Amino acid sequence: MVVTLFSLFLLVSVLTALRPGRKGIVKILAYPVGWAAGELALQAIAMQLATIGFLVWWQWPQREWLSTTLIVISVLVILCNLILLGVQFHSRSVVARAMSREASEPLTLGRPRDDRFGSWWRTLLQIPLHPRDLLVQSNVPYGPLKRQRLDVWRLSTTPLDAPIIFFVHGGAWIFGDKREQGRPMLHEFVSRGWIAVAMNYRLAPKYRWPAQIEDVTRALGWIKQSAKSLGGDPERIVIAGGSAGGHLAALAALCADDPQWRPPGFTRVTDWSVRGCISLYGVLEMTGDDVAWDGHGDKLRDLLENTVVGVPVEGHDDLYRSLSPVERITPNAPPFLVIQGGNDTMVDVHVARYFVQRFREVATAPIYYVEIPLTQHAFDVSASPRTSATVRAAVAFAEHVTSRSRESLNSPQT
């Protein structure tokens, strides 16, 4: 009976990954259960087969109805997980097609064997191991407060004047750490001769908005002032982030000409722009608008009103629009890469679609949009075939925007 219940749990988990619920307790469990099932399909198949093997060795359940039930459940578990596993590998072609569809500047991705660090065995393990020759400067202060710290990653062979990938972690603006997210992507960038910078920022509710974007802006200023001493090029910075970090990265990229959140003491920085922005399942609309969120923005509004910002949306419309990246798009916005999971229950897929549509209407720079089917929030934490595909997209995008002049990237699309 215990084995049957375990198999039933695996079945419910994989069904949650395939079709997550949106109401009640099912909605609460959709992300943690669906994420684990979606990323660990191969492991689930192995556990189910091991369970069946154990029962065969143990001479199987003696009750016919129980053995029949277990067989049916086991077959369903294996078939559904094979679908999820197939989706991970199918994501390679989905990502490649999406990057080639940008009408003005289509990009061609490298092949899996061209990855500098994401080898097949690391993908099989799904553990984001770091390069052996990785050099890390940990907890470098970019401000006086405890959370104002960043890490700088490079190799001993990183060339001078290397481009810089600047990563902002997620965590709903209330938790998270620079050591926990974006690692498969950053490892690949570093292996390709980039310098990676990952930052911490002040968290709500101890520090209310706009402390978070002020810290991102301060860190960006620190990078620009310190790039030469790090061996990097201050003119070739690409900012990236996931979830809340995707929101902060997008906002920083879109507000280069707005001095509102700039810290004092950075008089040497005259150009606050970046070459491009990579938003991974970012919160790109911050009012919980029913159109942008397809009616699923109530949880965001509660979080912002009660914990992050501290004031209601109603009556403070201008404030919430000011912190919403979709409201900050201008004709001279930098190029964007937006990557979004179709089954994301934390940031609805319609948010990314809404942002991309608005960007294409207003901005002159290219925007690349990758929507991955049957994929949950924060999928890139594990080094899966799907993650390696999106990493290749990020590398192609970043290398493209840093190889061109800023003026040519912002020329009108044809």
Describe the structure.
The chain folds into two domains: 2-89, no CATH class; 101-409, Alpha/Beta hydrolase fold, catalytic domain (Rossmann fold, 3-Layer(aba) Sandwich), CATH 3.40.50.1820. The N and C termini lie far apart (64 Å). The chain has 414 residues and is of the alpha/beta class. The protein has an eight-stranded mixed beta sheet, with helices on both faces. Strand 5 (232-242), helix 8 (244-254) and strand 6 (276-280) form a beta-alpha-beta unit. The model has no long low-confidence stretch (mean pLDDT 92). The chain has helices at residues 2-18, 24-39, 41-57, 64-100, 120-125, 183-191, 211-230, 244-254, 290-293, 298-308, 317-322, 349-362, 385-403, 406-409, and strands at 134-141, 149-155, 162-168, 195-199, 232-242, 276-280, 336-341, 367-372.
